[in-house]
């Protein structure tokens, strides 16, 4: 992808001019709907006939047109072109997103769904967005938080990431050691013999996402001499 595609930033001067145009138009629209202050002659009584429905409809239509057109100039109908591209880069510069997450986030601001799909695909092909990278960062983050394999798989699913992206990494992790270290940090090195304390340790490790087989091995493991 050429660098020329990425050097277009939002033209804030153009947005400022469009906002001024909106305020100017609304001011004139308000002034045009106010009654004239010229007094009627004393011999002439004001007309008491209410305006017809056709006249009311025409007035409402004119007011709607005067406020809708400036809003379109401000781009409130959705981002497109260089504005959408600039917003996409601002989003992925802050954190890693899966492809599906990025699509959903951009659609909240974009005007055209197809444009979003094409842009995200372009970013993925150029490695600005990467499901593989996002999955690896998710795994590392979950491990730092003391999460087991079940919780890690849930985190991947929530981000619309295929766990096969990090299948090899998951197999290489010593989950028994992970569970044992968590148990020791929370409850100490001593092996629990009281049923209530055992149950508490089991619930704790289950909540962290470890399998029961790993949990039982962890809570019964003797301290290394």
UniProtKB/TrEMBL annotation:
Residues 41-62 have a biased composition (Low complexity). InterPro entries: RecX_HTH_2nd (IPR053924), RecX_HTH_3rd (IPR053925), Regulatory_RecX (IPR003783), WH-like_DNA-bd_sf (IPR036388). Residues 63-74 have a biased composition (Polar residues). GO terms for biological process: regulation of DNA repair. One of its GO terms (cellular component) is cytoplasm. The keyword Transmembrane helix does not apply. Residues 130-168 form the RecX second three-helical domain. Its main location: cytoplasm. Keywords: Cytoplasm. It is found in: Cytoplasm. Residues 173-219 form the RecX third three-helical domain. Residues 23-77 are annotated as: Disordered. It holds the Pfam family RecX_HTH3. Signal peptide: none annotated. Belongs to the RecX family. Modulates RecA activity. This is Regulatory protein RecX. It comes from Acinetobacter larvae. The gene is recX.
């Amino acid at each position: 992808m050429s660098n020329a595609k990425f050097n277009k930033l939002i033209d804030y001067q153009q947005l400022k001019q469009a906002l001024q145009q909106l305020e100017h138009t609304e001011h004139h629209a308000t002034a045009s709907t106010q009654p004239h202050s010229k007094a009627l002659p004393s011999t002439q009584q004001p007309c008491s006939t209410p305006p017809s429905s056709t006249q009311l409809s025409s007035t409402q239509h004119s007011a709607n047109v005067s406020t809708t057109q400036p809003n379109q100039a401000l781009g409130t109908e959705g981002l497109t072109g260089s504005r959408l591209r600039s917003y996409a880069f601002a989003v992925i510069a802050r954190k890693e997103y899966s492809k599906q997450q990025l699509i959903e986030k951009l659609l909240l601001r974009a005007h055209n769904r197809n444009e979003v799909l094409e842009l995200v695909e372009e970013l993925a092909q150029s490695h600005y967005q990467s499901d593989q990278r996002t999955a690896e960062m998710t795994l590392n983050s979950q491990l730092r938080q003391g999460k087991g394999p079940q919780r890690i798989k849930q985190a991947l699913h929530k981000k619309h990431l295929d766990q096969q992206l990090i299948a090899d990494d998951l197999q290489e992790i010593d989950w028994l050691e992970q569970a044992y270290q968590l148990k020791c940090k929370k409850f100490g090195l001593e092996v629990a013999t009281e049923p209530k304390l055992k149950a508490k340790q089991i619930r704790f490790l289950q909540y962290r996402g470890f399998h029961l087989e790993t949990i039982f091995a962890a809570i019964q493991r003797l301290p290394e001499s």
